[in-house]
Amino acid sequence: MLANKRILLIISGGIAAFKALDLIRRLRERGADVTPVLTRAAEQFVTPLSVSALAGNKIFRDLFDLTDEAEMGHIELSRSADLIVVAPATADLMAKMATGQADDLASTLLLATDTDVMIAPAMNVRMWDHPATQRNLATLQADGVRIVGPNQGDMACGEHGPGRMSEPLEIVAAIEAAFSQGPLAGQHIIVTSGPTHEPIDPVRYIANRSSGAQGTALAEALRDLGATVTFVTGPATARRPEGMKIVEVDTAQQMLTAVQTALPARAAVFAAAVADWSVVGASDQKIKKDGSGKLPSLNFAENPDILATVSQMTDGRPELVVGFAAETQTVVENATAKRARKGCDWIVANDVSPETGIMGGTENAVTLITKDGAETWDRASKTAVAALLAQRIADALKG
Ligand code: CTP
Q1: Three-state DSSP class for 145?
Q2: Which atom of ligand 1 is least distant from the CA of 310?
Q3: Which of 257, 276, 350, when mutated, tests ligand 1's pocket best, judged by the most ligand atoms within 8 Å of its CB?
Q4: Higher pLDDT, 160 or 17
Q5: Is the C-beta atom of 343 inside 6 A of ligand 1?
Q6: pLDDT (tens digit per residue) in 270-288
Q7: CA proximity to 19, closest of 172, 152, 195, 229
């Protein structure tokens, strides 16, 4: 699967660097050609000689090495690979990547490259949880960097939590997925997900119970079939999908703008639970009780319907537009009417009555409504539903 794939492996300086040695071995077993790059700090954890011997290739260490520059300049090096993998990716290197710094060979290569990049973060749990690292992670995800891990577990520093670098075989699996020749390879698909938040004032908002779990599962299932996914998400509690461009928004209006910016796309799947209304004239200041006992009143305006807007585009409409219908009664009838009203190709209908436990839960029971009628699927995990739906999308785009 990785035969003749050229991988530039950047090893940065963390205790997990020792796992990079095993990663090199696993990649070479699968036929990959690995060119290692070591940061100065990495050399404190693994020796250049052992890395070079395992890789069977020359290693690169210094931005200002005259011999290296004469043989293969750093710009050429950054573009000669099919994939750049950073394992381990320290908090420091992630910060450099997120802010576009280029003060050593590794960070310069990452800034100069036009090749896909994957990182396997590894750091202390507090460093991982720190808002600065989480901000950098969100920036890197939004830039389309593929992220593997980190895993939960005991750490070399004696603490426990997320921050352990993924195991070499997990990284290998992610690299293989990145080279997937699936049926959706090269196809751009937009997925919306999560709730939207419509502000009332700076501290209050109107929201709904959508977790975004189905959207995350669907985006990853499409990615696994090779699609290039743009994931536009409201403030969802579900984890963000990996290996795709993520656009974070709050309101329905922002979600519409983000979707329009992401177009064109071959297909668009609207799994977000968009708020139907926004508050007219949301207050700039926190609304206070004035002591008179008089209750505040809110005026609402209807939000733009993103699904209907995209479905009814006359120019550049995606070939396949899929909506979701969250219903609590007469699911098939309502969803069939919704499909006609909005003008989308398919509606994935589900019953979100509280007793089903679907909204915010791990399972889903859906009915797929197309021009040919309604097809009810067995209740299954959101991941299984996502895999089935992704495959149906691939089949539809093939035909
Ligand atoms: N949707 C959208 N923009 C909106 C409202 C909904 O894109 N402003 C999309 C959702 O992402 C979903 C579909 O429309 O794919 C159906 O959403 P749903 O809330 O179930 O239906 P509504 O259009 O809100 O209709 P109703 O409230 O009457 O059920």
Answers
A1: coil
A2: 7
A3: 276
A4: 17
A5: no
A6: 999 999 999 999 999 999 8
A7: 172
Rounded distance between C-alpha atoms, residue 106 and residue 92, angstroms: 12
Q: What is the pLDDT of residue 70?
A: 65
Separation between Cα atoms, residue 91 and residue 12, nearest integer Å: 10
In the chain, the domains with their CATH numbers are 1-179 (3.40.50.1950), 183-285+295-399 (3.40.50.10300)
Is residue 128 in contact with ligand 1, taking CB distance under 6 Å?
Answer: no
Mutate to test the pocket of ligand 1, among 251, 307, 336 (most ligand atoms within 8 A of CB): 307
- pTM higher than 0.70 for the full model? no
Instruction: Pick the residue whose CA is nearest to atom 12 on ligand 1.
Output: 324
Ligand 1 lined by 350 (C-beta under 6 Å):
no
pLDDT digits (tens, 9 = 90+) for 129-159: 999 999 999 999 889 898 888 887 777 777 8
- Does the CB atom of residue 274 touch ligand 1 within 6 A? yes
Letter string b/e over residues 19-45, b meaning 16 or more CB atoms within 10 A of that residue's CB: bbbebbebbbeeebbbbbbbbebbeeb
344 is a catalytic site residue: no
**225: its two tokens:** 């079939």
Express each pLDDT in 225-256 by its tens digit. 988 888 999 999 999 887 677 888 999 999 99
The count of other CB atoms within 10 Å of the CB of residue 145 is: 24
CA angle 228, 348, 389 (to 5 degrees): 45
Query: Is the minimum distance from the CB of 326 to ligand 1 under 6 angstroms?
Result: yes
